[in-house]
Amino acid sequence: MHKLRSSFVLVCLSLSFTATFFGQRQTGPLPTSSPTPAGDSTRVTTPAASPTPAPTPPPPPDPMGTQAFGGLRFRSIGPAVTSGRVLAFAVDPNDRTKYYVAVASGGVWKTVNPGTTWTSVFDNEGAFSIGAIALDQKIRRPSGSGTGERNSQRSVGYGDGVYRSDDGGRSWRNVGLKTSEHIGRIAIDPRDSNVVFVAARALWAPGGERGLYKTTDGGKTWKAVIPGTEHTGVTDVAIDPANPDTMYAATWQRRRHFYTLINGGPECDTQIDRRRQSPDAASLRSASGRSWSHRIVHLAC
Q1: Which residues contact 77 (CB under 8 A, 6 or more apart)?
Q2: Which residues pair with 135 in a beta bridge?
Q3: How many domains does the structure of the chain reveal?
Q4: Is the pLDDT of residue 27 over 90?
Q5: Fewer CB atoms inside 10 Å of the end CB: C or N, the chain?
Q6: Torsion-angle region of residue 114: left (phi > 0), alpha (psi -120 to 50) or beta?
Q7: What is the DSSP string of 81-125?
Q8: Sheet holding 107-111, edge to edge
Q9: What domain range is 286 assigned to?
Q10: What is the CATH classification number for the domain harbouring 222?
Q11: Residue 16 and residue 5: Cα distance in Å, rounded?
């Protein structure tokens, strides 16, 4: 019995010693970092995020770019029923809300509210086809309307000369050149309303009052300062606004038949390849329409 007790004591001591030994190994003090003194620059901290660079500002918009004009669209403002082919404008320089429109197959139209409404002012005259309209710069009113469009197609409308208005288009009277058929341009001397130049050229008929005509008495009499020929007339005339004594005119040889069209080139009916190489228009310069010099400016067709 004494030996058994001694053995039990030894076993208990052994277990106690083993538990103490392994417990000290497992629960020993863990390594710790030394506290960093306050203000120590070596302290390890989480790095701050780098600042995001400011976005580059967009370039300023182009004042002439699409954003400036993208909302603008051409739209028809009338006249509503004119059968097409608007040929000329005459705008009042002192009031641009007022202007007149010459229509190839629809007379003369007037607006006083930039195209919102239109009034026909040529309904009672002898021709419906208008090739030119001119505004007298002294009285700021339309004073000349040339009948007969200056186009060359088969359906071209012809006229019966030049009309004059002295009351802003309310009434008109024919002042001559009735066989011109087609008026290309009217130019009024800015110094004298009675001095007027008319570029005239027929199409279907030979001869007629083709050429550049001048009046010094408001249309009572006319003189051909550039006489036309059987097939050639004057299609355009311009007065230099800086020097009204200097003028320019352009001639055009053309003649339409049922079977062909001479639309530039020599007056005889030639082959089309020769017609392409021949002059069809001339620039003519004058001092007040009294004398003219001739210079070819471009070739045919």
Answers
A1: 114, 115, 116
A2: 142
A3: 1
A4: no
A5: N
A6: left
A7: SS-S-EEEEEE-TT-TT-EEEEETTTEEEEESSTTSS-EE--TTS
A8: 86-91, 99-103, 107-111, 119-120
A9: 77-299
A10: 2.130.10.10
A11: 17
